[in-house]
Amino acid sequence: MTDLTLRRTEKNQVFIQIKEQSLNHGEFEWCEAEAPRGLYSDASLVSVLKHVPTGYFFGFYDTYVTMSPGGQRKTESLLAIGFVLKLEMLKEWLFRVRIEHRTLDLWATVAQEKALSSAVASTVVANPPFTPAEQKLIASKLDEITGFLVERQDFSEEQFETVNREIEYLKEASRRFGRKDWLTMLLGGLFSLILTLSVTPETAKGLMKLAGEAFQWLWIGMPMLGQ
């Protein structure tokens, strides 16, 4: 079997590329893979770089590279003659890994804290208007959500205005829309803040959990507050 694994100097160049993408070297590991025998070559041993948190990988084969994620598909194999070209492809792969790794998984967030999303999808929640007392309670709970976000993340002035604008809109909407419609708007507003503010997965999970607890009275059958 032919040993085509990378030399130390080549791996050092990979190390530099990871640093330039502001990625954590500790999240990567090297392994070796066996490349099948080709028409004009014997079976060979090659180096594969793996990004452990995501499971993505980049394989340095003899005349091609195999990577996930690819530029067009989740997994791609592309012709690449020479290490210089492979290194250029690695740069593009590292950029995609960085984007994918730092992108919040909204589906996972909903699955982990699904009380609110389940209520929105439920056919049990009716759509009567809120009473003035309920509107006041909603405003108080929305202020708690604002406080949670401000405590968890340092916002720029523009971001803080975005939070206030969305929260004030939801307060005003509670005076015009019924329960079911307002819950749908609340869920959409929270996800809009999560995306716009680029909050961490931990903050997003905490936000959804807080909202589910703060507004569960809307779907657990609690009587409406008095006029």
What does this structure look like?
It is a single chain. The protein contains eight helices and six strands; from the N terminus they run E-H-E-E-E-E-E-H-H-H-H-H-H-H. It has 227 residues and is an alpha+beta fold. It has two domains: 2-102; 106-218, no CATH class. Strands 1, 2, 3, 4, 5 and 6 form a six-stranded mixed β-sheet that branches. The chain is elongated and about 80 Å long.
Layout of secondary structure:
Blueprint (H helix, E strand, L loop, with lengths): L1 E2 L4 H13 L7 E8 L8 E8 L4 E5 L3 E5 L7 E4 L3 H20 L3 H7 L2 H7 L10 H21 L4 H17 L5 H19 L3 H14 L13
Parallel strand pairs: 1-3
Antiparallel strand pairs: 2-3, 3-4, 4-5, 5-6
Helix pairs in contact: 1-2, 4-7, 5-6, 5-8, 6-7
